Structure formats: structure tokens, C-alpha cells
Amino acid sequence: MKLKSVFDASEIKSEFESAGINPNFAIPIWKYVIQNPDCVWDEIPSLPSAAYSLLHSKFKTLTSSLHSLFHSSDGTTSKLLIKLQNGAFVEAVVMRYDTRLGMLGGKPRPGGIRSTLCISSQVGCKMGCTFCATGTMGFKSNLTSGEIVEQLVHASRIADIRNIVFMGMGEPLNNYNAVVEAVRVMLKQPFQLSPKRITISTVGIVHAISKLHNDLPGVSLAVSLHAPVQEIRCQIMPAARAFPLQKLMDALQTFQKNSQQKIFIEYIMLDGVNDQEQHAHLLGELLKTFQVVINLIPFNPIGSTSQFKTSSIQSVSSFQKILRETYKIRTTIRKEMGQDISGACGQLVVNQPDSKKIPGTVELRDIEDLHL
Fold first, then answer.
1. Annotated active-site residue in 11, 15, 91, 368
2. CA-CA distance, 350 to 353, in Å (whole number)?
3. 91 an active-site residue?
4. Catalytic residue at 345?
5. Angle at alpha carbon of residue 43, lines to 39 and 48, rounded to 5°
6. Average pLDDT, integer, range 87-116
7. Which residue of the set 118, 125, 132, 345 is catalytic?
8. Cα(282)–Cα(231) distance, rounded to whole angstroms?
């Protein structure tokens, strides 16, 4: 019989309640497993006797394993290749930033080096975005909530994770229930992450966006918009045909009204496709009534056969200037990390590059601080 992950909250709650065991015992179990990754069930102290036999028969401490770990040459990025119980692989990425960069209230920002984890929600992806390496895999399977949480467990052993972004492999809102359950576990002990430090990214699954604030209040939303008009979106994002731009904008307006939160807009810069001045003006007009932060993302090549080219620095800067000065929209340019280990935005696809040693850390600022 296939054993379940002990981090699958709904499964352990159901099994414990059926056996007459208080489901709150899951929290000390999670804490012990995180602190003792190679433990066996009998080593966990102070559980009801019935819990031990149930854990042995139904659950594993971890259903996944860290197969390989790759480090970027500048030390800012680590990519985890994680093997699932069914033999499939997913990738997660740890990105290290320095919170002291920039100013806060006219004074240098306090803090130091800390880490953000980019998490996968599916094996492969069915969205088929033409600029994304994961899209070339096609869709393989959804991850369970336990497999999603286990990425955080593995990553916590190499870094103190402060932020979570669901921007890895897969479309998170196409695996809605598992993602919601996983986030709820991350908000509890022993992880106790703040909801404002968790961001879920989507290409625009309208019906799921409409539910997200009620199910995960305080969690941030990022939208992979990538084009200001439906025609270009459909050209580079085939799944956009199912989610017309106006319906997406209506869903975002409702989300913002209910949540009172800024929305992150992700916009990949593709040379000659969506990076011209007219595109900047169209984007500004589309978003001028919203409270958003636009993040311009330089395109990361996904092989010599890629149909796209990276926009020039001048084009990206001009695009940013129009949005900032004409439309007064806060607009940032993403600092790319982990390109040398295929860990940058749009590059996640299961492969195994050469492992590289971390020589030190480089001071960078994390976009996830922008909404604080």
C-alpha cells in the first residue's frame, strides 16, 4: 500500500479522528520530523499509543527525497531537484537576498541575508506558455499538499526560509485544493509563516481567483499577465484563450476590492513581441485603476531553439519609465538569479546540471519586500 505524507494535513486529520486521536498531535509530529529528518515513528515522544501503529501503517515521515542540490556561482541561488514517491521529479529554488539594500523611511533598511523559496505545485504544466521551459514538459500530475509542504521541509535544511512564492513548476490554481491546504499548513506551527509573505502566482484562472481571498486571506496574488491585449496573450500563452482579458480584469478588481491588497503583475519582456512603447501605454491604461506593482522580467533563454529573444536593456528601461512617469505605477525590473543552474524565472524543467559550490552571498533586494 502506498504510504501518505505526514504533511498531508487532511489525510492525517481524517485518519486520527477515525482512530479517536486528537488531530492536534500532528503539530508536534511535524516539528519532530523537521528537526529529526531521519527519525522513525517510535522516536517521537508523548504520542497516544494508538498513534504509533497508525503512523507505521499509513504514513511516511517524508514521501519525497532531495535527489540533487545545485548552487549558482554567485551564491545567491540554490536549486533542489526533489524525487517524489512515484519516481517523478520537481524543482524548487532558494533565492538569497539582503534586506539592507535600499531605503526605508529615508534611512538604511535594517536586516541582513534571508531567503525566499520558489515552490512547484505540479509536475509539468498544462498552460503551455511558449516562453517557459516547464511548459515544454506538458502536464504530468498534480502534487499532493504533503508533497508541496515537503519542498519547504527540504529547503529549510539549507536556508532559513522567510518568504514563499508559488512560481515554480505548474499552475498553482489548477491544483487549487492542494495548494490551499499546503499554505494553511505553512501558516501553522511549526512553520508559522506570515500570510503576507506568501505569494501565489497564476496565469489567470478566473474562477479560482474569485475564491482565493476567502480561502487564504492575507496571501498575496501575482498574475502572469505578460501582454496588455488578448491577441498577444493568446499568441504567447495558449491557455489565455480560456480566460479573456476583460474577465480576468473583472476578477482582479473583485479580488482587490475584497482583499484591499496590492496585486503583483508579472510581465516577461520579449524582444519585438510585447516590449515596445505602445505596449507600455496599453499596459498602463489597462492597470491605471488598480493598485499594482508591475515586475518586468527579462526573458531567460530556454535553449538554442527558443523562438524569443531577450529585450534590450534600453527597451526595458524605456518601458519602465513610461509606466512610472506617465501612469504613476510602481514598476520594478527583476534581478535574475540562478541562470547558470537553470533556476531563473521560466527555466524550471527537470534536468540535472553540474553541481556548483557556494563561494559566498551577493547582496540583492527581494521583490517580495515591495508590498510590505
1. 91
2. 10
3. yes
4. yes
5. 125
6. 82
7. 345
8. 13
Beta bridge partners of 93: 79, 118
pLDDT digits (tens, 9 = 90+) for 236-257: 999 999 999 999 999 999 999 9
Query: Which residue in 123, 161, 120 sits closest to 34, CA to CA?
Result: 161
Q: How far apart are CA 97 and CA 362, in angstroms?
A: 8
Is the separation of the CB atoms in 40 and 55 below 8 Å?
Answer: no
Kindly give, in sequence order, each residue whose CB lies less than 8 Å from that of residue 25, ignoring residues fewer than 6 positions away. 16, 47, 48, 51
Question: Tens digit of pLDDT for each residue in 157-210?
Answer: 999 999 999 999 999 999 999 999 999 999 999 999 999 999 999 999 999 999
Cα–Cα–Cα angle for 66, 71, 75, rounded to 5 degrees: 135
The strand pairing partners of 91, in sequence order, are 81
User: Are the C-beta atoms of residues 76 and 98 closer than 8 Å to each other?
Assistant: no
Q: SS3 of 122, please?
A: strand
State the sign of the Cα–Cα–Cα–Cα dihedral 192, 196, 202, 205: positive
Taking 50 as the threshold, does the pLDDT of residue 353 lie above it? no
Helices (H) and strands (E) in the chain, counts: 10, 16
Question: Residue 202 in contact with residue 231, Cβ under 8 Å?
Answer: no
CA dihedral sign, ordered 179, 181, 187, 191: negative
- pLDDT of residue 361 exceeding 50: no
* 3-state class (DSSP) for residue 111: coil
CA-angle at 65, arms to 118 and 175, nearest 5°:
50
Residue 152 pLDDT exceeds 80: yes
CB 72, CB 356: distance < 8 Å:
yes
Tell me the one-letter amino acid at 58: K
**What is the strand order of the sheet 263-269 is part of?**
65-71, 77-83, 89-98, 113-118, 161-166, 198-202, 220-224, 263-269, 292-298, 330-333
Locate 180 and state its grid cell: 490551499
Residue 32 C-beta-side C-alpha neighbours within 13 Å: 16
Pairing of strands 107-108, 103-104: antiparallel
Give the span between the Cα atoms of 342 and 350, in whole angstroms: 10
**Separation of alpha carbons 30 and 173, rounded Å:** 26
Check residue 265 and report its DSSP letter.
E
CA pair distance 155, 148, nearest whole angstrom:
11
Query: H or E stretch including 92?
Result: strand 89-98
